[in-house]
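Researcher: Next sequence.
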Amino acid sequence: MKNLLDFTRQELSCWLEDNGIRPFRAGQISKWICIRQAESFEEMTDLSKELRKKLEDHFYIGRLIVEEKMVSVDTTEKFLFRLSDGLHIESVLIPGKDHFTLCVSSQVGCAQDCQFCLTAKGGFIRNLTVGEIIAQIRDIRFYLMQNAIDPLKLSNIVFMGMGEPLANYQNLIKSLETITDTDYGFKFSPRHVTVSTSGLVPKITQLGLDTSVNLAVSLNATTDELRSELMPINHKYPLKQLLEACRTFTMKPRNKITFEYILMKGVNDSKEDALRLVKLLSPIKAKINLIPFNEYTESGFKRPSQKDISDFLQILLDRNFTAIIRKSKGDDILAACGQLKAKLIH
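Model: Next structure:
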């Protein structure tokens, strides 16, 4: 028996047609899953009893198990989900002024081994299925409904949780198809969906051709020597290749690529680093998110002083870059950038 959430609407249409059922029914089924949050096929009352029975014989509607939920002082919520094989992932629900953003995981663990990231400490276990990726969104919207909150208040998705999204490319693209399906899917605008990468250059180019979602690049260094030390992916795809892929990335005229730059004390936070960053990104339609390092016990990296953070930002602003200091939420519950680990806390 297969998880229905693993199927895109197009794939479900093909399955229905192969089984002698009119393929337009796939849209009705998708609405029940994505919008109406159906728990069973019996609820799908605009389908015939015969079709409901056939679906029940071949599919199940997967949900994740909430093993633990933690709430930050800033009301950020971190969900520890247990998968069907007993492995765990984390998703983070981040409150905004009038909406929510969900930080979604794409893998169990991560193979990129970025030195500043807690997820990397556990290594890579496996890719998430399409169903496991979109279940994070579906289940969090259901959670909002249960708490009398309009589920459509969850309007932004960032693939910045556990894993490297572009290393799970096919499942990512299929997930995005359902996430951005404005007729029968989750109805997210591509403008409100961001995929973050450590720098898998060939997949960056492909992403621009296959989708119209936003791209974020985790940069974190302005020389190959330092970036290779912090992020081993740089050995394979050094800065020149990465930045050229960004320069030629296919996107709408007004869009910009977000470059995430984690500021670490005495590592990459100097005036010289800021000036090199200006030079590197000048040829690219870029905006810069400065992220002061979110400290955790196992790390030797430290957060810079507020003065050093402000000085770094000012150098960028003085040279007409769009740049902000991103306020990390949920750091008291290890839900901030680079802190996800999927460890059950008792």
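Model: The first strand starts at residue 2 and ends at 3. The CA atoms of residues 89 and 342 lie 5 Å apart.
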